[in-house]
Model the fold of this input.
Amino acid sequence: MSRPQAGSPAEAGAQIRFDDNTLLPLLFGDHDRHLVRIEHALGVVLRSRGNEVAISGPPSSVAATEEVLRTLYDKLKQGLPMGGGEVDGAIRMATGRGAGGTEDAAGSGARAEPEAELVLRTRKHPVSPRSPRQAEYVRAMLGNDLVFGLGPAGTGKTYLAVAVAVSLYLAGRVERIVLSRPAVEAGERLGFLPGDLKEKVDPYLRPLYDALYDMLPADLVARRLDAAEIEIAPLAFMRGRTLSQAFVILDEAQNTTPLQMKMFLTRLGEGSRMVVTGDLTQVDLPAGARSGLRHAVSALEGLGGVAFVRFGNADVMRHSLVTRILEAYDAGDAHTPGDDRDRDPAPRFGVVDRSS
Done:
């Protein structure tokens, strides 16, 4: 129970009592570093004594801090991991902010409801959204047959898509996972690569392997790859196939051509779900080539059963400097005439679902 405390009109106070003392070292962090992180992010003062935490600060910040602490405590009771990323995620969820600390563009800053139902179970560790935008993305993937995840690197587009795929596969809701991406170098020409076909294409698919190995034991991944229940293949191998009862992910889709994108989207078979991810500001196609992702967005937006989730720079989950780097590049691009193919239309954030 929390109870209001007396204070000045600009200040408020609350006190939270926790039932399980054994979880408090994890909740507070080494040398109370998690509490310090919350204080700095929300502008409150936290004082812990025994199994109680007293909160003082602006009323809205006190309410958000209560929600953060309760959310983190509930996660610990469920056996979920606790670290700086989880603390930052709880703060973003409680305040409706993007990762960069600004109000999330999806809403008015209202606090989101707890996302316990969005925890994705994998063999190694559970995965849960760390921002309101990520929560909308997970909901979109669980509720739609075709989802486009658009935005800069580091926002969790691919990682969360693989997490949803793994969780549905382990739950028996799909029979296999198919991961694909175009084999296009990022601004380089590597020339001839030695080895057999698998060895030639694996470097392009490494991010997908990395996500899988983070969620499943290596021996299980190897067995499922041998059994073709998990398939990782370049986009060129998709032609002529019908993918049924599968969770299909196309990563780095900005490097497809319109014909490749059409070919890929029409592979969708009975009982399957498809997620397409990409960043329209990082197109590596030859000069003058049109991105198939851009073409698909303009052609399919408004189509029933298709959802679009757009991430912004504030949703980047990497080092905070990455967000500022992206903003600096965007500011520079706004003043520099450039190639049309490297530009996204006017940004629109959040989920657009025209399924009705």
